[in-house]
Design a protein that fits this description.
Length: about 850
């Protein structure tokens, strides 16, 4: 039944949220206008707070309405129909919420509301100027989901549009305007992963957090408080660096677990659009640290903090304007928001640059000249390296934007992205990693001591010697195993080891001095470990599924597929590196049953999400379904059971790489890997090809056998014993009615490794004869019950055969990839320690009035933490 009330409520709430954000932005602006920091107009301040509270409440209503539409399967709404389906579990319905552009904008708006409430409670004197910026951003974001049409002008794209309004030309709506589909198109298979439930919210929280230091910086420029903004901005920058960094690695881990390109980072433009602002954010964090310690780099801090948020807006334009449609596999399509996105971006670019130019000469600078023995110099150089790395990625990723802009002004452009993007980015970003690793170790050592030639030499001797010894040992081991090491790899290995050892040594030194641990030191160790993990896992991945058969699998495959994959016939053993590998069957996911269920235990019904159990489905002694029970299944994905057995040790494990036929994704087979994790490496396996599942099997001509109970027949390389005839069960999905007759043959087929029970069915209904054959997929056999001779006690069965099932599998060994994931955890711990260190800092203590505004050029105590 068509329900427009919930959509009307949601759409009205969006309008209320937009108007309230507009009122809040204006009221907070008026509260702070023409006044010094902390001196606000009380009446305008109350209006601003009230308006933002109304805005937040309206946003919560919008979220509730949209999720209610998705959860309630209200397919009269385009958003629910295009992103959800009847059989999705609740946690994937959450993913449906932000799969579309409108939902992801709404998620971003939601985080801004929560952060805005925190700022209203704790920002004190900064509330009015900061919240005016904050509410202004909310105004623009809310306009993206407004969905209001004024003549020829469309403002935003509403998530509450009805399907009949979005697709009015469909014939069904001309016949029945109130038509509601029974099911939706479903959630993209690649997004049906637990990381997609937590990765997008984390990433958008990181985006939202970058707005806070930006708002403080703009407020500082606006109010002329050019130094006081640093401390509150520092705390929020730390949170942004932590959350956005973890969100990015979550996305990398999702790609590693779900996609089949063989890694965790593919330098896709959408990946780059997130990576760039994080690099600049980390650089801005180091700039803020330099100002707090020695009153240097304040101008740099302003520029980098502002640039971070502007790059987030630019990333939003890249991924949502459709400009990357031909360059990225997972950018959003254009919903007609390109103009709004450009206005959104340019509004804040103009505001920020205008304020910077206005205040530039007033921003304090240090007359102190930095020398080789100043730690601040090397921190600044490290931040510069981060910015250069971000700039290189930005310039190349923006090539489609250049083309679009030149085309807009009438100039034809033939600029193209690099043919091998991974090689293009990696060869430059590798050297950025070298710089980051080296300068993070050097600066950390110098940060905690007074430096001269003697003290610096003494401090660097031990980590330097250990680094050279460690690097030499690794190089010798690499050569021992017959591998080569390029010069760039040697340099990255050496500097990353130095980053680990120098920072680790300083952490131990601080512990001996009973000084609070450096969160920066821990984070730097994590970054260096990540670089080592990337070097090992990406630089020395080993394809163990080499084709050693001497056969060409198919002329339709490219050279690498024929070379780097192994053909596995069902239940046959094949060598793969040090393993013997067997493909043992296809499995389905049955919610409530641990693991996966063998397809041969299920009889499929007309409802693709239901099957009948042909035998008891159990795990150990616990029976989950008895023979004949209806089993709920998730049919989209087929899991291919692959057994690995080490020939030397005899140790074995089982993997279930996933495959899905998905023509909508432009591929015959959409494959996801399964991974066996060891301490020092991963075995990463995915399906490259399977027999076309949409093509009818090519069965041989039926060969008839007239049998008596107890007879044995030979079937190619196998034999079967006819054990008798019995009444057919409902396991065949016959839907037997009174007066129907159904019997089934009972065969025991002896295969290579196990026995199979086969039950072809013979049915008599309304004097019509029907036959339901039974198939042994493992053996490529099909038995049909053809006839009955009750007088002679003879039964006629037909046997036909087909090519055995097979898969083509690729398996890659990823050495020391755990260094990447453990380094990420250490990086997060380091950020967390820095945040915890600053938890008690308040404006009252940290921002004295009067002389505080005059920058002090003397360094602060050396016990201060570097983040």
């Amino acid at each position: 039944m068509l329900n427009t009330v919930i959509g009307d409520v949601g759409h009205l709430s969006v309008i209320v949220a937009f108007v309230a954000a507009t009122v809040a932005a204006y009221s907070y602006y008026k509260a702070a206008q023409g006044r010094t920091l902390g001196d606000t107009d009380a009446s305008w301040l109350r209006i601003g707070r009230g308006a933002f509270a109304v805005h937040g409440l309206a946003v919560f209503v919008v979220i509730a309405a949209l999720f209610g539409i998705i959860h309630g399967h209200r397919y009269e709404y385009y958003y629910a129909w295009s992103h959800s389906s009847n059989h999705l579990p609740v946690y994937y319905m959450i993913s449906c919420f932000w799969e579309g552009q409108e939902g992801s904008f709404l998620l971003w708006i939601f985080w801004h509301v929560l952060i805005g409430f925190v700022l209203m409670r704790y920002s004190r004197r900064w509330e009015a100027p900061v919240m005016s910026i904050f509410a202004g951003v909310q105004l623009f974001l809310t306009s993206m989901i407004l969905g209001v049409v004024l003549g020829d002008l469309k403002i935003g794209s509403s998530p509450f549009i009805l399907l009949r309004d979005f697709m009015p030309d469909l014939p069904v709506f001309k016949l029945n305007p109130d038509f509601v589909p029974k099911d939706g198109t479903g959630l993209n298979a690649l997004l049906q992963n637990y990381w997609m439930v937590i990765h997008p919210p984390t990433l958008f929280l990181g985006f939202a957090l970058t707005l806070v230091p930006f708002a403080y910086a703009i407020a500082g420029l606006w109010k002329g408080e050019l130094t006081k903004w640093v401390r509150p901005a520092m705390r929020w920058t730390l949170w942004g660096g932590l959350v956005l960094g973890v969100g990015i690695v979550m996305g990398a881990y999702w790609a590693y677990e779900t996609l089949n390109f063989g890694g965790y980072w593919n330098w896709d433009p959408v990946e780059n659009a997130v990576y760039i602002p994080w690099l600049v954010l980390v650089a801005s964090l180091h700039g803020l640290v330099l100002w707090q310690r020695s009153r240097t780099a304040l101008r740099t801090s302003f520029v980098l903090v502002i640039a971070t948020f502007l790059l987030v807006l630019y990333a939003t334009f890249l991924t949502r304007s459709g400009v990357l449609g031909n360059a990225s596999v997972h950018s959003f399509t254009d919903l007609g928001l390109s103009g709004q996105l450009i206005i959104y971006l340019m509004a804040f670019v103009v505001l920020a640059i205008g304020l910077l130019v206005w205040r530039w000469k007033q921003i304090p600078i240090s007359p102190k000249e930095l020398t080789t023995y100043n730690a601040e110099l090397w921190v600044f150089v490290g931040a510069t390296v981060l910015c250069l790395g971000a700039f290189q990625v930005l310039v190349t990723t923006s090539i489609p934007v250049y083309n679009a802009f030149l085309g807009f002004i009438g100039i034809k452009s033939n600029l193209a992205l690099p043919a091998d993007q991974i090689q293009h980015y990696t060869k430059i970003q590798l050297w950025m990693g070298v710089g980051v690793a080296f300068f993070s170790g050097l600066a950390q050592v110098m940060w905690w001591q007074k430096n001269n030639k003697e003290s610096l030499t003494s401090s660097l001797t031990v980590p330097g010697i250990l680094t050279l010894l460690g690097a030499a040992l690794v190089i010798l081991l690499v050569q021992y195993y017959g591998l080569k090491m390029e010069v760039s790899y040697i340099v990255l290995l050496t500097t990353a080891l130095f980053g680990v050892l120098a920072n680790l040594g300083m952490v131990f030194t601080l512990m001996k001095r009973k000084v609070s641990l450096s969160g920066g030191g821990i984070a730097h160790i994590g970054i260096a470990l990540m670089l080592l993990g990337v070097l090992a896992s990406a630089g020395y991945s080993n394809i163990i599924s080499q084709n050693v058969s001497g056969l060409l699998y198919s002329r339709e495959f490219d050279e690498t597929t024929n070379r780097d994959n192994v053909l596995l016939w069902r239940n046959d053993k094949a060598p793969m590196g040090k393993y013997d590998v067997s493909y043992t069957g296809q499995y389905l996911d049955a919610p409530g049953v641990p693991g996966y269920v063998d397809k041969q235990l299920l009889f499929r019904t007309a409802d693709e999400y239901k099957a009948l159990a042909r035998a008891d489905i159990k795990r150990g002694d616990q029976v989950y379904y008895k023979a004949g029970d209806t089993v709920d299944i998730l049919p989209e994905n087929t899991y291919y059971r692959v057994e690995y057995k080490d020939r030397k040790t005899g140790e074995a494990f089982v993997l279930y790489p996933r495959g899905q036929v998905n023509e909508e994704m432009g591929e015959g087979l959409l494959a996801s890997p399964d991974i066996k994790r060891f301490a020092d490496h991963d075995i990463y396996s995915h399906i490259s090809a399977v027999p076309p599942p949409d093509k009818e099997k090519d069965w041989s001509e039926v060969k008839e056998h007239v049998l008596s109970v107890g007879d044995t027949i030979f079937l190619n390389d196998y034999f079967a014993v006819f054990r008798g005839v019995e009444p057919a069960h409902q396991t065949a999905g016959l839907g037997l009615a009174k007066g129907d007759l159904a019997i089934q043959g009972d065969f025991l087929v002896f295969g290579e490794k196990k026995q199979y029970h086969v039950h072809p069915v013979f049915v008599v209904r309304n004097r019509l004869i029907g036959r339901v054959p039974d198939e042994v997929e493992d053996l490529g056999l099909r038995l049909s019950f053809l006839n009955v001779d009750p007088q002679k006690g003879k039964f006629t069965f037909g046997v036909s055969t087909t090519q055995k099932d097979y898969i083509i599998l690729k398996a890659v060994e990823k050495p020391f990839i755990n260094l990447l994931w453990s380094g990420t955890l250490l990086m997060a711990v380091g950020f967390g320690m820095a945040i915890y260190k600053r938890r008690h800092e308040t404006e009252a203590v940290l921002e004295p009035t009067g002389a505080e505004a005059v920058p002090t050029l003397q360094p602060q105590p050396k016990a201060r933490q570097v983040a």
